[in-house]
Amino acid sequence: MLFSPALDSICVRETSPICITDMLVLVQDSTHWLQIEPLTSTVQGVTMFRHRTPKGSYECTVSGLRWLCERDVILKYHFRNWEAYSQLLKDMQYTQGGPLLDITMEVGELEEVHLPHCVCLGTNPSLRNEMKILHVEEHGVSLEEVHEVTRFHAKILHPKFSAISVILRYIFSWNVDVHCELMLYLTVKKQTLIPRLYLFPSNPGQILAVEEQESKFQGSKRIPITRPEQSLKLNSSFRLNIPCSTSIFPPRIHLIHRDTTPSFFKVVMEITGIEMELIGDDERTVWKEIVPTDEYITETHSTSAVLGAGGPAESSLTGPAEQQLRSVRTEFVKRVSRPALNELLDGLLQHTVINQEEMESVKVIAERTEKARDIIDMVLRKGNESCSRMINLLGELDPCLCSLLQINSVGEPT
């Protein structure tokens, strides 16, 4: 059986921002990696990712996992929580160096796999000698030597899979710089703005954990922000400064590997532009960002909701669901987020608005706007009852978007 690259969504490779200290690293990865978006599914509450590829070199857009194969392969994986293995790592005198990935080969074998890591090697290239590959197997664990370490990946040859990750010898983790992630989410409640800023060592599994947690907060929206230009010292602490804030809690966050969802600063402030700076132990500013008011009002809420209206906007649309949905098609495609689209697809399948084949045909689309366009057009073709279900689902998944689009939830079809 031959597989075509078209079977998975393929997008242009994007180069990760270069950390200033990484410029000293001698080993650079010159391989061209074709980025592909995985097919996703949920099995017993666990998000599963699946790829099928022909011969070539690939990188998963979700996990950062890279692999090289000489023939057709199918692989699947999911992120595992480190919590069950934290004591084991301490006993072994190692600490996390990246996400814990449970990888299974369904078809074929890989020549190489490159596991993502967060260690910045620029300040201390010898750290590559203190990195190992951890295999978590049914009857215990084992360690494997790393073949080569590049800026963001550790390479191993002819891998045999289980739950697998990069780990770092514990004694060195107290003086190591790591690449970091900052994720900003905002919630608007009448006249109050509540930003939540997450800070953690780069880990795709933790990014997914934050997205899942934030999906439970009504009205929460992620606002794109820059990453720190430099690596940050692991085990150091940072405080967040927002001059116009009423409160910031906690006062400081320690930059450590966490077994579960990362910590975040919760801020309470009036609705205004946000000027943020992250300050280290030595009182030096390591990151700055400005989010203007019009950006987050547009992204998180309609004007009427920001001003505290208790119900639908006065100009909310009325009439048949199909008519409402058709009238907001352009704005829906422009504004709906990727996580909302994925949850909407699952909901439409659960309510039998679409079937499994239709869902799979949309899931392989990489471009967000194209995916959104296919979903709304598919539902519009199915008539008023299906449109009613979509509007109701959207109201549950993203009430702020519904408010912005000024569409109203309608009675559940019988």
Précis, in short:
By secondary structure, the protein is of the alpha+beta class.
Task: Note the main attributes of this structure.
CARD, eight-stranded antiparallel beta sheet, Death Domain, Fas, disordered N terminus, 414 residues, Immunoglobulin-like, 12 helices, alpha+beta, Chondroitinase Ac, Chain A, domain 3
CATH topology of the largest domain: Chondroitinase Ac, Chain A, domain 3
Question: Total strand count, please?
Answer: 26
Number of helices: 12
Q: Number of folding domains?
A: 3
CATH class of the largest domain: Mainly Beta
Main β-sheet: number of strands, strand sense, barrel status? Answer: 8 strands, antiparallel
Low-pLDDT runs of 5+ residues are 1-28, 299-315
- What form results from the Cα inertia axes? globular
Describe this structure in words.
- There is one protein chain.
- This protein has 414 residues and is an alpha+beta fold.
- The protein has 3 domains: 5-173, Chondroitinase Ac, Chain A, domain 3 (Sandwich), CATH 2.60.220; 179-300, Immunoglobulin-like (Sandwich), CATH 2.60.40.2660; 313-405, Death Domain, Fas.
- 25% of the residues lie in helices and 34% in strands.
- It contains 12 helices and 26 strands.
- The protein has helices spanning 86-92, 170-173, 204-214, 293-300, 303-306, 321-327, 329-335, 338-350, 356-363, 368-380, 384-397, 399-405; strands at residues 9-11, 34-37, 39-43, 46-53, 56-60, 66-69, 73-80, 94-96, 100-107, 112-116, 131-137, 140-145, 148-149, 153-157, 163-169, 177-178, 180-189, 192-201, 221-223, 232-233, 237-241, 245-249, 253-254, 264-270, 274-279, 285-291.
- Strands 3, 4, 7, 8, 9, 11, 12 and 15 form an 8-stranded antiparallel β-sheet that branches. The chain has a 7-stranded mixed β-sheet with strand order 1-2-5-6-10-14-13, with no helix packed on it. It has a 5-stranded antiparallel β-sheet with strand order 19-17-18-24-22, sandwiched between helices.
- β3 (39-43) and β4 (46-53) form a beta hairpin.
- α6 crosses α11.
- It is globular.
- The two termini are 45 Å apart.
- Its main location: cytoplasm.
